[in-house]
Specification:
Oligomer: heterodimer
Largest sheet of chain A: 6 strands, mixed
Order of helices and strands of chain A: EEEEEEEEEEEE
Shape of chain B: globular
Helix content of chain A: under 10%
Distance between the termini of chain A: 41 Å
Number of strands of chain B: 11
Strand content of chain B: over 45%
Number of strands of chain A: 12
Helix content of chain B: under 10%
Number of helices of chain A: 0
Number of helices of chain B: 0
Largest sheet of chain B: 7 strands, mixed
Shape of chain A: globular
Largest interface: A-B, 25 and 25 residues
Structural class of chain B: mainly beta
Chain lengths: 114, 115
């Protein structure tokens, strides 16, 4: 069965500093990987996704993520955080063999301090 | 995503009451999903539907039922609500024509409190 682990429950970062959110997945074949962001009181918005090809994926709002098969990881990064990046971030994995149903991690809450 | 709407946005109900949460989409997608979100647990799949006649249980379907009234509408019912069904509920859609590279698009959520 597929599963996702986000090891960091909460991260605090200073505005302008870099941010990295960790995501580890468990799945035997090539997974489909997603990062979603949930701002307070809002639904989930897709930041980026990986299906195949280039392992470094660019997303919206200046985010990028790198798929590393050897480490079963799909970490999300942003070089310089803005106060508006304060939100909860979810990593998700899907697979063709599982009807593309998504399994979500528990989420990482990001706090941005001035 | 404004193309996926959920009603109501907030609901307070009492234990034992029947409640229905509704989801509508204008994206033309054939696949629809219901999730619940609990703090520290992420999102968990309740039910999903790949078309009007195809409805499937997710990982936590007990205590819930669904109805796919049309391609654009997917309702979630709690036949007899209990306090541990207090959660944030999300509807999502995806398009099978993406050929597997499906992105799920989420509604704004319904916050449900069962007293």
């Amino acid at each position: 069965a597929q599963s996702v682990t986000q090891p960091d429950i909460h991260i605090t970062v200073s505005e302008g500093a870099s941010l990295e959110l960790r995501c580890n997945y468990s799945y035997g074949a090539t997974p489909y990987l997603f990062w979603y962001v949930q701002s307070p009181g809002q639904g989930l918005q897709l930041l980026l996704k990986y299906f195949s090809g280039d392992t470094l994926v660019q997303g919206i709002k200046g985010f990028e993520a790198e798929f590393k098969r050897s480490q079963s990881s799909f970490n999300l990064r942003k070089p310089s955080v803005h106060w508006s990046d304060a939100a909860e971030y979810f990593c998700a994995v899907g697979a063709r063999s599982n009807d593309y149903k998504l399994s979500f991690g528990a989420g990482t809450t990001v706090t941005v301090r001035a | 995503d404004a193309d996926v709407t959920q009603t109501p946005r907030n609901r307070i109900t009492k234990t034992g009451k029947r409640i229905m949460l509704e989801c509508s989409q204008t994206k033309g997608h054939d696949r629809m999903y219901w999730y619940r979100q609990d703090p520290g647990l992420g999102l968990r799949l309740i039910y999903y539907s790949f078309d009007v006649k195809d409805i499937n249980k997710g990982e936590i379907s007990d205590g819930y039922s669904v109805s796919r009234q049309a391609q654009a509408k997917f309702s979630l019912s709690l036949e007899s609500a209990i306090p541990n069904q207090t959660a944030l509920y999300f509807c999502a859609t995806s398009d099978k024509r993406a050929g597997g590279a499906e992105t799920q698009y989420f509604g704004p959520g319904t916050r449900l409190l069962v007293l």
